[in-house]
Amino acid sequence: MRVITRQVENQPLTVIIEYPEYDKSASDLIRKINNLNFRFTAFDEEKQIRIDLSDVYYIENVERKMFIYTEKEVYRFNSTMSEIEEMIKETDMVRISRTCIMNTIHLKEIRQVKNSHLEAVMDNDEMLIVSRKYLRDIKSVFKRGEV
Amino acid sequence: MKKVLRDTCLLASLMILSVFGLSIIWSGITAEIKLVFELFGLALIISVSNYLYDELVSLSIILSYIIKYFLISAIVMLFGFIVGWFFPSNFWMVFIYVGVVLLMSYFLDSFRIKKDIDYINKKISSRDKKIAEEK
């Protein structure tokens, strides 16, 4: 892979990806750049904050209010589940239950508790409940780009 | 293999629907044709109920199947009484039919979940290995 950089004045930061054929590495690279470019605008009390997608662990709907959880902080986010689902297409985030969207970048393991419910263990050891219905969607995030 | 089986079932359903649908032109609605359309109607009702149940309820796999067993049995029983499949003396057969279908679904579902979890965990560990190598 060649990396060519050049300064172009009066233009926004632009990434052009050229590939001989669209394969897994091209798709992975595009997804990584999409992830880098993605930011949520959330609120810490009244203060507006921009959060990189890579810092988000999960987004949860608690009593019709949306919250963004990073490794240690929680922020208020003004949006709905369906709007967020629309935003996160082509990123590593995926819906895992009726009320939760998880960032698979921070996923450490999925496990089934004795034929019972499913749990997602995050890299900060936090655990999230996964609905069986959404397990296929998590799998498809990992499957994306496979040829 | 899974795709072939799924496509076979879909094709068989389409064949049954079109063959029995066309047969109405020549032989009218016979008992067999009526039964086929009733089964498709019941399948639609069960699929919609199952979809709504999965959307609204999140329980452990066993508890979920137990509730589904009673829910689907009730739907089949009600539907069966309306279309005249059952008589008060043989309605208990619903529990056997539904039980057999749900037991098969349960084992298929458990197997699929285990396979999906293994796949995801394998992908996570190879991703983490790759990140560690890059560092």
> Tally the helices of chain B: what do you get?
4
Secondary-structure element string of chain A: HEEEEEHEEEEEH
Number of strands of chain A: 10
What would CATH call the homologous superfamily of chain A?
A: LytTr DNA-binding domain
Largest sheet, spatial ordering of strands of chain A: 5-4-3-7-6
Helix content of chain A: 10-25%
Q: How many distinct domains of chain A?
A: 1
Please tally the helical runs of chain A, counting DSSP H or I stretches of 4 or more residues: 3
Description:
The complex is a heterodimer of chains A (147) and B (135). The mean pLDDT of chain A is 87. In chain A, the strands form 3 sheets. Chain A has a 5-stranded antiparallel beta sheet with strand order 5-4-3-7-6. Chain A has a 3-stranded antiparallel beta sheet with strand order 8-9-10, with no helix packed on it. A two-stranded antiparallel ribbon of chain A has the order 1-2. Chain A has one domain: LytTr DNA-binding domain (OB fold (Dihydrolipoamide Acetyltransferase, E2P), Beta Barrel). Chain A is α+β, with helices and mostly antiparallel strands. Chain A has 3 helices and 10 strands; from the N terminus they run H-E-E-E-E-E-H-E-E-E-E-E-H. Chain A is globular and about 50 Å long. In chain A, strand 8 (107-112) and strand 9 form a beta hairpin. In chain A, 20% of the residues lie in helices and 33% in strands. Chain B has one domain (31-134). Helix content of chain B is 87%, strand content 0%. Chain B is elongated, with a radius of gyration of 21 Å. Chain B starts with a helix and ends with a helix. The interface between A and B is medium-sized, with 22 and 20 residues.
Descriptive tags:
heterodimer; A: 147 residues; alpha+beta; OB fold (Dihydrolipoamide Acetyltransferase, E2P); five-stranded antiparallel beta sheet; three-stranded antiparallel beta sheet; 33% strand; B: 135 residues; mainly alpha; 87% helix
